[in-house]
Structures are given as structure tokens and as C-alpha cells.
Amino acid sequence: MTHPLIIAVDGPAASGKGTIAARLAQTYGLPHLDTGLLYRAVGMGLLDRGGALEDATLAGMVAGGLDVRDLRDSERLTSRGAGEAASRVAGYPGVRAALLEFQRSFAGQAGGAVLDGRDIGTVIAPKAVAKLFITATPEVRALRRWKQLTGRGEVIAYQDMLADIIRRDERDAGRGAAPMVQADDAVLLDTTDMDIETAFDAARRIVEAARVRHGL
Ligand code: C5P
After folding, report:
1. 168 lines ligand 1 (CB under 6 A)
2. Which run of H or E residues covers position 33?
3. What is the pTM for the complete model shown?
């Protein structure tokens, strides 16, 4: 029996992991799930209901009632505010538990899948064939995110973006529930000095090496 090709792509915000995951999915003809969107949809859903980001119980209920249609408004979900809300609700064990099954079944599809997030290689798909942990310095990540957001009209100063990135890293790595951490068997890819083509090429080579190891 051959393994399904599950590819786990983890790392901090604006490391390049989303673009790399999408391109890996395209290359291997696999479905792709950006798991950050789930947490973003929960954060925005909570605010839409007039809830406070401190309300772990309501956040868990929103997560339990999440519908894939809630993931459609990607412009709104990829805003700065949604990222901040996401990282607040992502610390609640009830939210993570409510989103676990959906992510596990997505990963378990026949033939495989590509998932990107913070805990894919550690919690969601610990048996993934290929695991990548994509990173870059906070300064470079802040610049990338700043260009992306200002390019579509959001008004934000670079220094504020950098502060956001650093605060989000600390929150994601420091929380008790499924903290952002590189899995023991993940390959580290630092994209600080790479353009996206170079980074994607490096990622593809990591996946190819993993496929060879697994006889796929
Ligand atoms: O990757 P993205 O910036 O869209 O993620 C938004 C937030 O969602 C992260 O800062 C993190 O707190 C949370 N998240 C998570 N686990 C994942 C994906 C995202 O905790 N697998």
C-alpha cells in the first residue's frame, strides 16, 4: 500500500509558507488547505456576533459552527485585524479541538493533501510524508506583509507591522495549546534571502527527497 502524499507546511506569519504550500499543491495535483483561514474565520465570526476576543466559550461555539462558506471572503479574512483576532482565539483549547476533525479529515483524503499552518507537522498530521518549517527574520516578514497590505489599500506603518509580527510570533510560540514549534522531523527552510522562486524550488527539493525516502 502506498502512503498518501501529505505535505505539512508550518511556520510564522509572512514566512512564505502560504505561497509555497499553494504551489506545492499545484505541482503535485493535491488539494490545499490554508488552516490560518479557519482561525481567521473564527476570530471574525466572534467579532461579527458582538463577542469579545476574551470570550473563550463563545469562540469555541463559533469554531464548532464554522462552515466552509465562512472561508470564502478571503479579502476580509486576510486583513490585519483578522490576523490579530485569529491569533487571539487560536490560543483557546476549545477552538483548536473544534477545528481538529475537519483538518484531520482534509489531511486524510485519498491521495494526500497539502496543509499549511502552525501545528500541521506536530498535531494535525504527525505522519505527513514531508514536513517543512518555513521561516525568515521578523524584519523581512514584516516588510513582505506591509507591501502586501499597503498594496491593496490598508494604511499601516512598517514599524507597526513589525510590532504586530513580533507580538504574534510570541503569542503563537508561547501558548500552551499546540504552540508553533518545528516538528523534530521537519526540514527548516529560511527564506530571508530568497525570492519566492528560489524558496519554492528549495521546498520542492525537500518534498522530492521525502518522496524518495518513502518510495513514492
Ligand atoms: O497563517 P495565518 O497568519 O493566516 O494564521 C493566523 C493565526 O491563526 C496565527 O497567528 C495563529 O495564531 C493561528 N493559527 C494556528 N494554527 C494554525 C494556523 C493558524 O494557531 N494551524
Report:
1. yes
2. strand 32-34
3. 0.96
Atom of ligand 1 nearest to the CA of 171: 12
Measured CA distances, 202 to 78, 100, 133 (Å):
26, 29, 12
CA pair distance 123, 194, nearest whole angstrom? 28
Going through 54-171 in order, the beta strands assigned E by DSSP cover 112-117, 130-135
- Is any ligand 1 atom within 6 A of the Cβ of residue 138? no
- The Cα–Cα gap between 42 and 39 comes to 5
38 ligand 1 Cβ < 6 A: no
- Among 142, 28, 23, 38, CA closest to 80: 142
| Euclidean distance between CA atoms 108 and 105, whole angstroms | 5
Helix/strand number for the chain, H first, E second: 9, 5
Place of cell 469562540: 59
For residue 2, pLDDT over 80 is answered with: no
